[in-house]
Amino acid sequence: MLKRLILLSLLSTSLLGCDSNDDVKELDSVLIKKNEYFSTQFNVDGNQQVNVKVSLLDNVPSEAFIITEEEYKNWEDETQTNDFANATLVSLVTFSPIPSSQTESGWMKLDSGDYRILIENTAFGSVSPPSSNISNSTNVMYSILYK
Length: 147
What we know:
Layout: H1 2-15, E1 23-32, E2 36-44, E3 49-59, E4 63-68, H2 69-79, E5 93-95, E6 103-104, E7 108-109, E8 113-121, E9 138-146
Antiparallel strand pairs: 1-9, 2-8, 3-6, 3-7, 3-9, 4-5, 4-8
């Protein structure tokens, strides 16, 4: 828990360099086990731009995607049997693999609606958790900013 607080504090400090008009919608770190994924929803109105930032904190490489809510529902339908290797996903932005240094989507003007950041640690995509690693989990920090 202390490690998570320190990491959040460090990332928050790096976000303080943002323009004063930037609003941090969400900032968190997640631990994702092998063959699991995490997603969180965010909403965009027509007057906003969004910048999503991600960084790998620890353990095995993983991938992140910015997708529409409709695409997330398709993902859930396709992966309910855990057949991640044969799933499809149409993303607006792909972070593959997520680097250990912070990377970002850049400011994007999206249509009004619901979107998700999806972080996966599965056989989907170009990065999969290794079978020989003692810890097959991934620890990723992300933030969603608006202006």
